[in-house]
Amino acid sequence: GLPTAFRNAGDHLGGETAEMPGVYAKGDYDLAGFCVGVVEKEDLLDGAKVQMSDLLIGLASSGPHSNGYSLIRKIVADRNVPLTQPMGRTTLGDVLLAPTRIYVQALLPPLRNRTIHALAHITGGGLTENVPRVLPNGCEAVIDTHAWPRSEIFEWLQAQGSIAEQEMLRTFNCGIGMVAIVPARARDVLIDHCGKSGIEAWDIGFIRATEGEPRVVYR
Predict the structure, then answer these.
(1) pTM of this prediction?
(2) Which of 54, 169, 179, 202 could lock 120 by a disulfide, CB 3.0 to 4.6 Å apart?
(3) What SS3 state is found at 216?
């Protein structure tokens, strides 16, 4: 049989049921899959390694990834925008269908060197909800929203949907698909390594002390 840790993992592992209003019709079903990884206990990134004055390095997304598409579909439908509309060097449709960027190859070497204190994958909930999940109590992430160039698609969505800035940061990744929390000494090495892996990265903020549960503050 499986080890106890695996037999008792049922409450922590599983697929995902997406919410996609207007996509599913009566009788449709959602088939979801998942994969499971194993990590040595001493290599876990559980927030315990995060220190005050650690830096936040944002890795560029390839677009909206898989999040906010109910809102995107509504904006496109309400504005009756053709998916062939030019968007940068391509079209709106191609930008919206861009595959979610995978960060494994860029992050494996610094993870093996233990220079990363925490990682936050920016999925549904944006920076606002995902970054605090990897922080311990008593600290907050201060993020400078001007520290990276926001992709044209996000500017377009905000304008077309009249979306408030706080809602944008809670709904979309806004150009940052992954956040690595590292000590200041690892900043340049990580950014350079990401660049060599074909992924732009920026110093987008830092960790500081606060009271209570972890949170994100913007400046």
Answers:
(1) 0.87
(2) 179
(3) strand
Of 193, 162, 166, nearest to 180 by C-alpha is 193
In 29-161, at which residue ranges do the beta strands (DSSP E only) sit? 55-60, 86-87, 90-91, 118-121, 139-143
Integer Cα distance of 76 and 69 in angstroms: 10
Q: Which amino acid is at 67?
A: N
Burial of 179 (0-12, 13-18, 19+ CB in 10 A): buried
Question: What is the number of other CB atoms lying within 10 angstroms of the CB of residue 217?
Answer: 12
3-state DSSP of 139-208: EEEEECCCCCCCCHHHHHHHHHHCCCHHHHHHHCCCCEEEEEEECHHHHHHHHHHHHHCCCCEEEEEEEE
**Positive or negative, the Cα torsion across 50, 188, 180, 219?**
positive
Six-digit token pair at 3? Answer: 């080890």
3-class SS at 121?
Answer: strand
Taking residues 116-133, report their average pLDDT: 96
Report the chain's C-alpha Rg in angstroms.
19
**Average pLDDT estimate for 147-156:** 96
> How is residue 94 annotated by DSSP?
H
CA distance 100 to 120: 15
Residue whose structure tokens are 């060097």: 89
